[in-house]
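Q: How would the C-alpha cells look for this protein?
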Amino acid sequence: MKHHIYSLHKIHSSTSFGFEAADYSRFKFGDDAVAAQYGKALADGFVNNVLAPQNISNQLVIISSPYSFIPTATFALKNHFVSQLNRWLAANQLPVVQETKVHRTITYKEDYGALDAEQRMNLISNDSFHIDAEFLKGKVLVFLDDIKITGSHERMIAKMITEYSLQNEVYMLYFAELANSTIHPNIENYLNYHEVKTIFDLDKIINSGHFCANTRMVKYILNYNHADFCIFIDYQTRPFINQLFDLALGNSYHTMDNYSLNLSYIKNYLFNNHNKLAQHGN
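A: Here is the predicted structure in C-alpha cell form.
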C-alpha cells in the first residue's frame, strides 16, 4: 500500500534550511526546548496541510523512529507533537492519538549521518523492525522521524508494513526532508554537529534545565577519546553518570569493544571512586 509523505521543511540548499542549524544540532544532542518547538510546529503543519482539509475520523497511532532501549532525538519531538495534536483533535471532537513502538534488533556504532545513500542502506538492511500488527488494525498510522535524507529508514518501514501485511492508511512525517539530490547526504552531519564540536560542548545542553538523553548523545560520549572523556565525566553530576551508565547497559553497549574502555571508567567511577565524586560536590 502506498503511503503518504509530509515534511515541514524541504531542504533545497546546503546553506539555508528553513530552520537554524544550531538549533537542530542542540536538538539532536538532547535539547528538549528545541524538541518542543519542532514537535509543535510539525503538528501544526500536519493539521493545517493534511488533517484539516480531510475528514479523518479513524484513530491515529503515532509511531516514533525505531529504537531499542535508548530513544532517539525524534522521541522527544514526538512527545510534543502528540501534545499539540491532541489539543486539536479534542477541540474537534475526534479521538486523541494512541502510541506504539517499532522495535529494532540491532544497534550499531557507525555514525549514520556521515554515510552516503548506499552505505546507509547496507547498514540498516542488516536490521529488522517489529511492530504489534494486531493493535494497529483499523487505525491510521503516523510514522514520525526528524529528517529524511536518503529514505533508507522509510524503505525499511515500508518493508515492515509489507511483511506484516498492514492494510492501514499510512503517513510518514518528517520535520525536514532533503529535497535536492545533488547535495551529499553528509549534510546531515553538518547539521548534527553544528553546535557540538567537542564533548565539552555538551555541558551547556546537559545543564540547560531542559535536557533529554538520547542515543546519539550516549554513543558520542562513549566513543570519545578516553583522555577527554575522563575529564568530561569527572565534572558531571552523579545522577547524570548513573543515567549514562544505565542507558548504555540497556542498549547492550557494554558488549561493544569500542565503548568498553570508557564504560569501564564509568563503572569504576561510580562504584569505586566515591572520593572524587564528593570532591566535585556530587
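The first helix runs from residue 21 to 28.

DSSP finds 13 helices and seven strands in the chain.

Upvote if useful.
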